[in-house]
Amino acid sequence: MTLDLTDQTILVTGASRGIGRAIALALADAGATVAVHYGRSREAAREVAAACGPDAHPLQADLSVLDATDRLVPDAIERFGRLDGLVLNAGVARPTPLDADTADWDEAWTDTMHVNLRAPELLCRHALAHFREHGGGRIVSVASRAAFRGDTPDYMTYAASKAGLVALTRSVARGFGEDGVTAFTIAPGFTRTEMAQDFIDEYGEAHVTSDLALDELTEPDDVAPLVTFLLSGHADHATGTTIDVNAGSYVH
To answer: Is the pTM of this model over 0.90?
Structure first.
C-alpha cells in the first residue's frame, strides 16, 4: 500500500516539536504540503518547515488567545489556497494540585481548556465550513489515554480536556459525514517528548513504564505513521474511531 498525499494541504498544530514535528515530517514524506503551526518556537518551526519541503510554511498562533486561534485556519487557507486536512495536536499539561490557591487553580484550568479543547473547537469551526464548501476533508485529533482512564490528581484538568476533545471529534464524525468529512482520534500514552519530560524527571522512567505491556516508551515516530494513514483516505470508514498508541497500557 502506498500512502500518497501529494494532492493534500494539511495544517498540523503544535508542529515545531514532539509528536507534531514527527507528524509534519511524515506527512511531507508522503507528499503533503504542510502548514507548520507553532506557538512560541519560531526557529524550531522554521526548521521543521524547511525539512518538509519548499511548499511548507510556518504559521504562528498562540492557542491560548481567542483572536489568534480564530485566525489560524483562515490564515492557512489564505496562504495555501486550500485545506484538505487538520491535525489537532497542540496541547498543554499544567499541574493543578488541590492545595493551589483558587486563582492559580482557575488559571491552570482555563489555560488548559482553551489550548486543549476550545482551540480545537474554534479550528474545527473554520475547517468544517471550508470542507463543506470544497467537497470534504479529514480531521485527526491527538488526545490521550488519560481521556479514558483518567490521570493523576495533579493532572485532572489535562484528562478532562482530552476527554472533551474525544467527544468533539466523534461529534464531528457523526455530524458532518454527509459533507464528506471524516474525523479520527489518536490516544497516545506517555510519549518521549519535551512535554512528558517533566513528569518523567519527577517520577522516573521506570514508574512511567511500569504499567505498560511493552518495556519502552512510545516515541513520536510511533504515532506519526498512523496519522498519515488516517489522512490518506484508506481509513474513511473508520471515521469516529479512536486508535490507542500507548504501549498496551490498557491491557497490561
So the answer is: yes
